[in-house]
Amino acid sequence: MSLPFSSYLSIYLSICTFIYLSFFLSSYLYILLSIFLHIYLSIYLSIYLSIYLSIYLHIDIAFFLSFFISIYPSLYLSSYLYVLLFMYLFIYLHIYILLSIYLSIYLSIYLSIYLHIYILLSIYLSIYLHIYISFFLSFFLHIYLSIYLSAHLYILLSIYLSIYLSICTLI
């Protein structure tokens, strides 16, 4: 028994729409998330460190605090970013799975058994591929940001401390 042309067209359009929407949503959410977190963390670090360094630092403990502050916020913020990124990826995967369940129900009603099995396998494989890629990217981003933030904070702290110590020695 062959299917009419409208059935083939609906199958083709549903598959193309599903693939396009999943790719578009994943790339758009990842770019937005990375830009938002980068801006938020840079503003938060600059305000927090400027207030903290201008109020609480003392000459006797300046070297210990510079070492401690250069390592602790970078590790803390990179783990915080890792948790946020994992949470957003979990929400995205939840939406993705709901869409795939909806499509699988729709396709199981209107399409034949063999086509339904083929599409379910492709959805299943795409979800698992996306999960593995997201874990790899989040792990890589966690390591890269911890190294980058610790180096960046150490440079900023050394500049602020040298200015602060030069001002204190002048007074």
Walk me through this protein's architecture.
Keywords: Membrane, Transmembrane, Transmembrane helix. It is a single chain. With about 170 residues, the protein is an all-alpha fold. The chain has one domain. Helices cover about 95% and strands about 0% of the residues. The chain has three helices and no strands. The longest helix is centred in the last third of the chain and has 58 residues. The N and C termini lie far apart (about 95 Å). The model has no long low-confidence stretch (mean pLDDT about 70).
| Overall geometry | rod-shaped
Strand tally: 0
Name the poorly predicted regions. Answer: none
Number of domains: 1
Largest sheet: none
Please report which band the strand proportion falls in: under 5%, 5-15%, 15-25%, 25-35%, 35-45% or over 45%.
under 5%
- Going by helix content, strand content and strand pairing, the class is mainly alpha
Radius of gyration in whole Å, from Cα?
Answer: 25 Å
Termini separation comes to: 94 Å
Order of helices and strands: HHH
The overall pLDDT average reads 69
Helix content: over 70%
Short description:
The protein is an all-alpha fold and 171 residues long. The chain has three helices and no strands. It is 93% helix and 0% strand.
Main traits of this protein?
171 residues, mainly alpha, 3 helices
Topology diagram in text:
Blueprint: H1 5-56, H2 62-110, H3 113-170
Helix pairs in contact: 1-2, 2-3
